[in-house]
Design brief:
This protein has helices at 2-5, 16-36, 84-87, 89-105, and strands at 47-52, 73-78. By secondary structure, it is an alpha+beta fold. The chain has a two-stranded parallel sheet with strand order 1-2.
């Protein structure tokens, strides 16, 4: 993260290497195959999508058709790299609190 992303203040997690290996396996097993042959699966529940616009690995363009599948989608674009949200967990938590509060208050429709 320091060399590739320039993140200097990230706590080292002792399971980080293992987590990364398992994460890549999940992408390979699920994401890549579905990218080329998506199933029609829609949701009406509120979805918050946080897009890291400077992500080298999960490009923002991958999400361009997501509104077709999630009718109640709130897209939040942030100038961040792949690991930036890990480096700033308080900011991510604040966005999640804000979104869930909006759903709870009814300002974001709960179509479930």
């Amino acid at each position: 993260m320091r060399k590739l992303e320039g993140l200097n203040h990230v706590s080292i997690n002792p399971t980080q290497l293992s987590d990364g290996v398992h994460g890549v396996k999940l992408y390979r097993a699920n994401f890549i195959r579905r990218l080329f042959r998506p199933r029609q699966r829609h949701t009406e529940v509120p979805v918050q999508l946080i897009v890291a616009s400077a992500d080298r690995f999960v490009r923002p363009q991958l999400f361009q058709h997501l509104p077709r599948w999630a009718a109640n989608l709130k897209r939040r674009e942030v100038l961040a790299s792949h690991w930036q949200l890990l480096a700033e967990p308080q900011q991510l938590a604040a966005w999640l609190r804000e979104f869930t509060a909006a759903v709870d208050s009814g300002s974001i429709d709960r179509r479930n």
